[in-house]
Each structure stands twice: as structure tokens, then as C-alpha cells.
Design a protein that fits this description.
330 residues, binds S-adenosylmethionine, 4-stranded mixed sheet
Length: 330
């Protein structure tokens, strides 16, 4: 295997040699994104880059993108575990390299199982996953037929985790670029656009949903997943929600539908509403910080420690109409 992750020092800043990114992202700030793989952008970059540089080679590679995204083969599992643990905390998975299972904080395969039946065959699709974490869902999308998946996530550690996994899968159809949604050009470039677990972090959620619509080809699909509250009123947390600081609005399902309709989307379908349980989001050897169990009221699991309703999530799918959306920014 070719090591892709050489470190170089340029003007006193450590930068990494990256694998070849897709060259068809028209108008994207790719130079800005590349410059973020640097010690100037993040104080832990050198530690993470050194972890990538020490990943042991794997032979007899066999990939499978089932519930556990797997690169099977022969590898030094001790050296592998030591390198991958340098990229702690691992949140989205499960993932497996050689004999090492990365038991991530989230059973993300459960979320995928909720949306996949509604999406069906993704053959030939070019997909955008906004706030994609380490790109776990991108591998699942490839297995469902997608031609290419572009993920964006501003958390550099998740981009480094993706590079570690991609080093083993040697599959250059699924990408995670360190970009924020608001840095992307709002031009229709994708067959399906996902935003899962992001909209409640946005101060202007309607603007975010409008952007999802604008990024989608006419006739394409938008997948919007969010924490929700039951009842008639959105929850606007005065402070934290389940210990998360940056939750601005937890909508009702009706509000999510209204955002999608307002953004010009049609055929809006609620494909799943499920509570998040401590079996789905939990601390593990690969995510040793506190998790959902520590965010719930110890005397009442229906409430967060702040007294809000415990997490429930809804998954909605809609289409961009074949005609232009009124007022879309293209
Ligand atoms: C709750 S996680 C959801 C991850 C994954 N989509 C899922 O459903 O499991 C939210 C993700 O959004 C990312 N994020 C936060 N602000 C963002 C922004 N402005 N644009 C894109 N992603 C963002 C975070 O880094 C984080 O990985």
C-alpha cells in the first residue's frame, strides 16, 4: 500500500500530502479546505497526522460496506489499534479494520436502517452529505449504488478519521472535506443531499433547508434528519439541550415539513420517528467521554438533565421539483 500521508513543513507549518480530491466540485473553496489539514488550523493536527503516518499496511484487502464498514485483511492489529486510538473519540460507525472493531459511540447503522428503505437504489447518484462526521454513511451510500459521495464536516478530527479508513478501503469515491455548509456554493450539483443531525445546530434553519434544496438537481432528493419534540411548539433551549451547547431550535415534525415546503420541496414524506436510546449512543472503548446516559435525568429517562424532553429524531425525505424553485439562489 502506498502511504498517502506524508507530512511536510512549509513556512513553519505542518501540512499533509492528501489523496487526489475530486476535480469536479465547481466553485468550491478547495484551497481553503486543503489548507485546513495543517498545524496552523488545529493544534492537534501533528498528533493526528503522525497517527496516520504510523498506520500499518494491510494485505489481502477485502472491503464490505454492510452495517459494520469493514476493510478485512492481514494487518498488525496492535500497531493499528495504537494508531487509531490517537484519533479518539470515534463517534460514527461501527467500523472494522483487520480484526479490530472500532466500537463507535453511535450505532450509526441503526440510523441508516431507518432511512435506507425509503431511498432504495442509489445507482449512479452523486450525493452530498452535509455534517457527515467521519463519512460512515458515505460508505453505506456507495454500497447502495452511489457513484460518488462528497461529505463535508468542519471538525478536522473527523476528516482525519475518514483518511484513516480510506487508507484501508483504498476507495476514492467517498470523501470528507473540512468545510461548513455555509461555505458551499448553492448551485445544484447533487442527485441527493443529506443533512442529518445538523439543522438544530443552525441559527437560521430555514436558510439551511433552502440551501439543501438549492444544492439538489431538479427532480433530486433532500434527506433532512433532526432532533424533534412532540406536540405543537418547537423547543428553543434557553441554554443547553442534553449537554449540547449549540442547539438553537428543536423543531416539531410539522415545523420540519413547513421548512421543506417553504424551501420549495415537494412529496415531503416522514419516513421515521424514533427515540434515541442509550443502546444507540453510548460510551465505549473508542469514545471514552460521557454520552447520552450522562445527559438524561438519572431519575427520569424521559427527560434530559436540563428537564427537556429526551431525544427523539425524525427523518424526512422530499423532492426538488423538476421546475426551478421560486427565489432559489442560482
Ligand atoms: C450530530 S452530528 C451528525 C453526524 C451525522 N450526520 C449523523 O447523522 O450521525 C453533527 C455534525 O455536523 C457537523 N457540523 C456542525 N456545524 C456544521 C456546519 N456549519 N456545516 C456542516 N457540518 C457541521 C459537526 O461537526 C458534526 O459532525
Amino acid at each position: 500500500m502506498v502511504s498517502l500521508y506524508e507530512l511536510g513543513i512549509f513556512s513553519g507549518v505542518s501540512l499533509m500530502r492528501l489523496p487526489p480530491w475530486p476535480d469536479d466540485l465547481v466553485g468550491w473553496p478547495l484551497d481553503t479546505a486543503k489548507a485546513r489539514f495543517s498545524s496552523e488550523h488545529h493544534g492537534d493536527f501533528n498528533k493526528w497526522a503522525n497517527a496516520l503516518a504510523t498506520l500499518p499496511p494491510l494485505t489481502q484487502l477485502q472491503v464490505s460496506y454492510a452495517d459494520t464498514v469493514t476493510a478485512a485483511g492481514t494487518v498488525d492489529d496492535v500497531a493499528l489499534t495504537a494508531a487509531l486510538q490517537q484519533l479518539h473519540p470515534w463517534r460514527k460507525g461501527p467500523l472494522q479494520i483487520g480484526n479490530t472493531t472500532i466500537d463507535t459511540e453511535w450505532r450509526s447503522d441503526w440510523k441508516w436502517a431507518r432511512v435506507a428503505p425509503a431511498l432504495g437504489d442509489l445507482s449512479g447518484e452523486r450525493i452530498l452529505d452535509i455534517g457527515c462526521g467521519n463519512g460512515y454513511f458515505g460508505w453505506r451510500m456507495l454500497a447502495a449504488g452511489a457513484k460518488e459521495v462528497i461529505g463535508v464536516d468542519p471538525t478536522l478530527l473527523f476528516c482525519m478519521q475518514h483518511l484513516a479508513i480510506q487508507y484501508y478501503t483504498q476507495d476514492f469515491r467517498n470523501w470528507v472535506l473540512p468545510l461548513k455548509a455555509e461555505e458551499l456554493p448553492s448551485t445544484a450539483q447533487f442527485d441527493t443531499v443529506f443533512s442529518m443531525g445538523v439543522v438544530y445546530h443552525r441559527r437560521d434553519p430555514l436558510d439551511h433547508v433552502r440551501q439543501l434544496a438549492a444544492l439538489t438537481h431538479p427532480g433530486g432528493r433532500v434527506v433532512l434528519e433532526s432532533l424533534i419534540v412532540e406536540g405543537d411548539a418547537d423547543l428553543i433551549p434557553a441554554d443547553r439541550y442534553a449537554r449540547m451547547r449549540n442547539v438553537w431550535c428543536v423543531p416539531t415534525v410539522t415545523r420540519m415539513q413547513a421548512w421543506m415546503a417553504e424551501a420549495g420541496l415537494i412529496n415531503i414524506e416522514v419516513v421515521d420517528v424514533s427515540p434515541t436510546r442509550v443502546e444507540e449512543q453510548r460510551s465505549t472503548a473508542w469514545m471514552r467521554f460521557e454520552s447520552l446516559a450522562d445527559s438524561l435525568d438519572p431519575n427520569n429517562a424521559d427527560r434530559t438533565i436540563e428537564g427537556h424532553p429526551a431525544p427523539i429524531r425524525a427523518m424526512l425525505v422530499a423532492n426538488r421539483p423538476n421546475t426551478a424553485i421560486q427565489g432559489a439562489s442560482e
